Protein backbone atom coordinates (compact mmCIF):
# COMPACT_ATOMS: atom_id res chain seq x y z
CA UNK A 1 0.00 0.00 0.00
CA UNK A 2 2.79 2.39 0.92
CA UNK A 3 4.60 1.54 -2.30
CA UNK A 4 1.42 2.18 -4.28
CA UNK A 5 0.96 5.59 -2.64
CA UNK A 6 4.59 6.51 -3.30
CA UNK A 7 4.24 5.52 -6.95
CA UNK A 8 0.97 7.44 -7.23
CA UNK A 9 2.55 10.47 -5.58
CA UNK A 10 5.48 10.22 -7.97
CA UNK A 11 3.16 10.07 -10.98
CA UNK A 12 1.16 13.08 -9.74
CA UNK A 13 4.38 15.00 -9.05
CA UNK A 14 5.75 14.26 -12.52
CA UNK A 15 2.42 15.12 -14.17
CA UNK A 16 2.17 18.36 -12.19
CA UNK A 17 5.75 19.26 -13.18
CA UNK A 18 4.92 18.55 -16.83
CA UNK A 19 1.81 20.76 -16.72
CA UNK A 20 3.76 23.51 -14.93
CA UNK A 21 6.50 23.47 -17.55
CA UNK A 22 4.05 23.26 -20.43
CA UNK A 23 2.11 26.28 -19.16
CA UNK A 24 5.34 28.26 -18.66
CA UNK A 25 6.62 27.60 -22.18
CA UNK A 26 3.20 28.18 -23.77
CA UNK A 27 2.81 31.51 -21.94
CA UNK A 28 6.34 32.52 -22.93
CA UNK A 29 5.71 31.72 -26.61
CA UNK A 30 2.37 33.53 -26.52
CA UNK A 31 3.96 36.65 -25.01
CA UNK A 32 6.76 36.48 -27.59
CA UNK A 33 4.26 36.27 -30.45
CA UNK A 34 2.53 39.46 -29.30
CA UNK A 35 5.67 41.49 -28.66
CA UNK A 36 6.70 43.99 -31.32
CA UNK A 37 10.10 44.29 -29.67
CA UNK A 38 11.17 40.68 -29.12
CA UNK A 39 14.10 41.74 -26.95
CA UNK A 40 11.63 42.62 -24.17
CA UNK A 41 10.83 38.94 -23.62
CA UNK A 42 13.24 38.76 -20.66
CA UNK A 43 11.23 41.47 -18.89
CA UNK A 44 7.81 39.98 -19.62
CA UNK A 45 8.31 36.23 -19.13
CA UNK A 46 6.06 34.60 -16.51
CA UNK A 47 7.43 33.33 -13.21
CA UNK A 48 9.12 29.95 -13.46
CA UNK A 49 8.69 27.73 -10.41
CA UNK A 50 11.13 25.08 -11.61
CA UNK A 51 14.90 25.17 -11.97
CA UNK A 52 15.08 24.78 -15.76
CA UNK A 53 12.78 27.77 -16.26
CA UNK A 54 14.87 29.95 -13.96
CA UNK A 55 18.04 28.85 -15.76
CA UNK A 56 16.45 29.75 -19.11
CA UNK A 57 15.50 33.22 -17.86
CA UNK A 58 19.01 33.75 -16.49
CA UNK A 59 20.60 32.69 -19.80
CA UNK A 60 18.31 35.03 -21.75
CA UNK A 61 19.14 37.96 -19.44
CA UNK A 62 22.88 37.37 -19.82
CA UNK A 63 22.51 37.08 -23.60
CA UNK A 64 20.42 40.26 -23.77
CA UNK A 65 22.96 42.16 -21.67
CA UNK A 66 25.79 41.03 -23.95
CA UNK A 67 23.81 42.00 -27.04
CA UNK A 68 23.13 45.50 -25.70
CA UNK A 69 26.82 45.94 -24.87
CA UNK A 70 27.78 45.00 -28.43
CA UNK A 71 25.15 47.34 -29.89
CA UNK A 72 26.45 50.22 -27.78
CA UNK A 73 30.01 49.50 -28.95
CA UNK A 74 28.82 49.53 -32.56
CA UNK A 75 26.93 52.79 -32.04
CA UNK A 76 30.02 54.40 -30.53
CA UNK A 77 32.15 53.32 -33.50
CA UNK A 78 29.50 54.57 -35.92
CA UNK A 79 29.27 57.96 -34.21
CA UNK A 80 33.06 58.20 -34.15
CA UNK A 81 33.20 57.44 -37.88
CA UNK A 82 30.53 60.04 -38.62
CA UNK A 83 32.44 62.68 -36.64
CA UNK A 84 35.61 61.81 -38.56
CA UNK A 85 33.79 62.13 -41.89
CA UNK A 86 32.37 65.51 -40.90
CA UNK A 87 35.88 66.70 -40.04
CA UNK A 88 37.39 65.19 -43.19
CA UNK A 89 34.80 66.84 -45.45
CA UNK A 90 35.41 70.18 -43.76
CA UNK A 91 39.18 69.85 -44.21
CA UNK A 92 39.06 68.66 -47.84
CA UNK A 93 36.92 71.61 -48.88
CA UNK A 94 39.71 74.05 -47.96
CA UNK A 95 42.22 72.89 -50.62
CA UNK A 96 39.40 72.52 -53.14
CA UNK A 97 38.40 76.13 -52.56
CA UNK A 98 42.04 77.16 -52.97
CA UNK A 99 42.32 75.30 -56.28
CA UNK A 100 39.09 76.88 -57.46
CA UNK A 101 40.41 80.35 -56.57
CA UNK A 102 43.62 79.69 -58.51
CA UNK A 103 41.62 78.73 -61.61
CA UNK A 104 39.50 81.86 -61.27
CA UNK A 105 42.67 83.96 -61.31
CA UNK A 106 44.10 82.06 -64.27
CA UNK A 107 41.30 81.77 -66.86
CA UNK A 108 41.69 79.43 -69.80
CA UNK A 109 40.73 76.02 -71.16
CA UNK A 110 42.87 74.17 -68.64
CA UNK A 111 41.34 76.11 -65.75
CA UNK A 112 37.85 75.40 -67.09
CA UNK A 113 38.63 71.68 -67.18
CA UNK A 114 39.98 71.83 -63.63
CA UNK A 115 36.81 73.61 -62.48
CA UNK A 116 34.67 70.84 -63.95
CA UNK A 117 36.69 68.24 -62.07
CA UNK A 118 36.44 70.27 -58.85
CA UNK A 119 32.64 70.25 -59.19
CA UNK A 120 32.73 66.46 -59.56
CA UNK A 121 34.98 66.10 -56.51
CA UNK A 122 32.69 68.36 -54.47
CA UNK A 123 29.70 66.25 -55.48
CA UNK A 124 31.48 63.06 -54.41
CA UNK A 125 32.53 64.67 -51.12
CA UNK A 126 28.90 65.64 -50.50
CA UNK A 127 27.82 62.10 -51.36
CA UNK A 128 30.22 60.70 -48.75
CA UNK A 129 29.01 63.15 -46.11
CA UNK A 130 25.34 62.46 -46.70
CA UNK A 131 25.95 58.71 -46.76
CA UNK A 132 27.59 58.93 -43.33
CA UNK A 133 24.74 61.06 -42.02
CA UNK A 134 22.07 58.81 -43.47
CA UNK A 135 23.05 56.04 -41.04
CA UNK A 136 21.67 58.18 -38.18
CA UNK A 137 19.21 60.32 -40.05
CA UNK A 138 16.91 60.75 -37.05
CA UNK A 139 19.57 62.98 -35.45
CA UNK A 140 20.01 65.20 -38.48
CA UNK A 141 16.66 66.10 -40.00
CA UNK A 142 13.86 68.52 -39.25
CA UNK A 143 10.48 67.91 -40.85
CA UNK A 144 8.62 71.14 -41.51
CA UNK A 145 6.61 72.95 -44.17
CA UNK A 146 8.89 73.32 -47.17
CA UNK A 147 8.30 75.12 -50.45
CA UNK A 148 9.17 72.85 -53.38
CA UNK A 149 9.88 75.86 -55.55
CA UNK A 150 12.46 77.20 -53.09
CA UNK A 151 14.24 73.84 -52.94
CA UNK A 152 14.33 73.36 -56.71
CA UNK A 153 15.47 76.93 -57.37
CA UNK A 154 18.35 76.42 -54.94
CA UNK A 155 19.30 73.16 -56.63
CA UNK A 156 19.22 74.77 -60.07
CA UNK A 157 21.81 77.35 -59.02
CA UNK A 158 24.19 74.46 -58.32
CA UNK A 159 23.82 73.18 -61.91
CA UNK A 160 23.65 76.54 -63.69
CA UNK A 161 26.98 76.14 -65.51
CA UNK A 162 26.14 72.59 -66.58
CA UNK A 163 22.89 73.68 -68.20
CA UNK A 164 24.65 76.47 -70.08
CA UNK A 165 27.74 74.52 -71.20
CA UNK A 166 25.73 71.49 -72.31
CA UNK A 167 22.99 73.60 -73.90
CA UNK A 168 20.24 71.85 -71.96
CA UNK A 169 16.63 72.89 -72.41
CA UNK A 170 15.12 73.33 -68.95
CA UNK A 171 11.38 73.31 -68.24
CA UNK A 172 10.27 73.96 -64.65
CA UNK A 173 6.60 74.53 -63.95
CA UNK A 174 3.79 73.84 -61.48
CA UNK A 175 5.97 73.37 -58.40
CA UNK A 176 4.25 75.95 -56.18
CA UNK A 177 3.48 73.45 -53.44
CA UNK A 178 4.36 73.24 -49.79
CA UNK A 179 5.11 69.80 -48.38
CA UNK A 180 6.29 68.29 -45.11
CA UNK A 181 9.95 67.36 -45.52
CA UNK A 182 13.49 68.28 -44.59
CA UNK A 183 14.65 70.90 -47.10
CA UNK A 184 18.34 69.98 -46.81
CA UNK A 185 17.75 66.31 -47.50
CA UNK A 186 15.26 66.98 -50.29
CA UNK A 187 17.83 69.29 -51.86
CA UNK A 188 20.39 66.49 -51.74
CA UNK A 189 17.89 63.99 -53.20
CA UNK A 190 17.08 66.40 -56.05
CA UNK A 191 20.78 66.96 -56.77
CA UNK A 192 21.39 63.22 -57.09
CA UNK A 193 18.49 62.81 -59.51
CA UNK A 194 19.55 65.76 -61.68
CA UNK A 195 23.19 64.62 -61.60
CA UNK A 196 22.07 61.32 -63.10
CA UNK A 197 20.13 63.13 -65.82
CA UNK A 198 23.21 65.21 -66.66
CA UNK A 199 25.37 62.10 -66.75
CA UNK A 200 23.21 60.23 -69.25
CA UNK A 201 22.41 62.94 -71.80
CA UNK A 202 21.99 62.52 -75.54
CA UNK A 203 21.43 64.97 -78.43
CA UNK A 204 19.07 67.93 -77.84
CA UNK A 205 18.98 67.35 -74.07
CA UNK A 206 15.94 68.42 -72.09
CA UNK A 207 15.13 68.22 -68.39
CA UNK A 208 11.65 68.92 -67.03
CA UNK A 209 10.73 69.38 -63.38
CA UNK A 210 7.08 69.68 -62.40
CA UNK A 211 4.60 68.71 -59.70
CA UNK A 212 1.04 67.38 -59.62
CA UNK A 213 -1.51 67.25 -56.84
CA UNK A 214 -3.38 63.95 -56.58
CA UNK A 215 -6.01 62.67 -54.16
CA UNK A 216 -3.49 61.05 -51.83
CA UNK A 217 -0.27 62.96 -52.42
CA UNK A 218 1.70 65.65 -54.18
CA UNK A 219 4.10 64.20 -56.74
CA UNK A 220 7.32 65.88 -57.81
CA UNK A 221 8.63 64.73 -61.21
CA UNK A 222 12.12 64.86 -62.70
CA UNK A 223 11.92 63.97 -66.39
CA UNK A 224 14.68 63.82 -69.00
CA UNK A 225 15.02 62.65 -72.60
CA UNK A 226 18.35 60.93 -72.02
CA UNK A 227 19.57 57.49 -73.02
CA UNK A 228 17.20 55.74 -70.60
CA UNK A 229 17.64 52.64 -68.44
CA UNK A 230 17.51 49.06 -69.65
CA UNK A 231 14.30 47.33 -68.53
CA UNK A 232 16.22 44.47 -66.90
CA UNK A 233 18.11 46.97 -64.71
CA UNK A 234 15.04 48.75 -63.31
CA UNK A 235 14.22 46.25 -60.50
CA UNK A 236 17.71 46.78 -59.02
CA UNK A 237 18.10 50.49 -59.72
CA UNK A 238 17.97 51.42 -56.01
CA UNK A 239 20.32 48.65 -54.85
CA UNK A 240 23.48 49.75 -53.08
CA UNK A 241 26.42 49.81 -55.50
CA UNK A 242 24.32 48.79 -58.52
CA UNK A 243 25.47 50.60 -61.67
CA UNK A 244 23.54 48.86 -64.42
CA UNK A 245 24.65 48.43 -68.02
CA UNK A 246 24.92 52.18 -68.67
CA UNK A 247 26.98 52.89 -65.57
CA UNK A 248 29.41 50.04 -66.23
CA UNK A 249 29.96 50.58 -69.93
CA UNK A 250 30.64 54.30 -70.15
CA UNK A 251 29.90 56.60 -67.23
CA UNK A 252 31.97 55.57 -64.16
CA UNK A 253 28.90 55.35 -61.95
CA UNK A 254 29.33 54.62 -58.22
CA UNK A 255 25.88 53.10 -57.76
CA UNK A 256 25.42 55.10 -54.55
CA UNK A 257 23.35 58.09 -55.69
CA UNK A 258 20.01 56.37 -56.27
CA UNK A 259 20.60 54.06 -53.31
CA UNK A 260 20.79 57.14 -51.07
CA UNK A 261 17.76 58.67 -52.80
CA UNK A 262 15.70 55.59 -51.92
CA UNK A 263 17.15 55.32 -48.40
CA UNK A 264 16.42 58.95 -47.56
CA UNK A 265 12.95 58.91 -49.13
CA UNK A 266 12.06 55.84 -47.05
CA UNK A 267 13.25 57.49 -43.83
CA UNK A 268 11.39 60.70 -44.67
CA UNK A 269 8.21 58.72 -45.54
CA UNK A 270 8.35 59.87 -49.15
CA UNK A 271 7.63 57.54 -52.04
CA UNK A 272 10.04 57.27 -54.96
CA UNK A 273 9.65 55.42 -58.26
CA UNK A 274 11.47 55.38 -61.59
CA UNK A 275 10.07 54.81 -65.06
CA UNK A 276 12.43 54.58 -68.01
CA UNK A 277 12.76 53.39 -71.58
CA UNK A 278 15.99 52.98 -73.50
CA UNK A 279 16.42 55.77 -76.04
CA UNK A 280 13.47 57.80 -74.75
CA UNK A 281 14.41 58.95 -71.26
CA UNK A 282 13.66 58.59 -67.56
CA UNK A 283 11.06 59.88 -65.10
CA UNK A 284 11.76 59.93 -61.37
CA UNK A 285 8.73 60.59 -59.15
CA UNK A 286 8.86 61.58 -55.48
CA UNK A 287 5.56 61.59 -53.59
CA UNK A 288 4.64 63.51 -50.43
CA UNK A 289 1.51 62.43 -48.47
CA UNK A 290 -1.45 64.77 -48.51
CA UNK A 291 -4.03 65.55 -45.82
CA UNK A 292 -2.66 67.68 -43.03
CA UNK A 293 0.84 67.08 -44.34
CA UNK A 294 0.73 69.36 -47.35
CA UNK A 295 -1.09 72.29 -48.85
CA UNK A 296 -0.89 74.15 -52.08
CA UNK A 297 0.49 77.68 -51.92
CA UNK A 298 -1.84 80.24 -53.34
CA UNK A 299 -0.25 82.17 -56.18
CA UNK A 300 -0.12 85.92 -55.78
CA UNK A 301 -1.19 87.84 -58.80
UniProtKB/TrEMBL annotation:
It is found in: Cell membrane. Residues 87-292 form the Histidine kinase domain. It is an enzyme of class 2 (transferase). The keyword Disulfide bond does not apply. The keyword Transmembrane helix applies. GO terms for biological process: cellular response to phosphate starvation. InterPro entries: BphY/WalK/GraS-like, HATPase_C_sf, HATPase_dom, His_kinase_dom, HisK_dim/P_dom, HisK_dim/P_sf, Sig_transdc_His_kin-like_C. Its EC number is 2.7.13.3. GO terms for cellular component: plasma membrane. Coiled coil: none annotated. One of its GO terms (molecular function) is phosphoprotein phosphatase activity. This is histidine kinase. It comes from Candidatus Coprosoma intestinipullorum. The lineage of its organism: Bacteria, Bacillati, Bacillota, Bacillota incertae sedis, Candidatus Coprosoma.
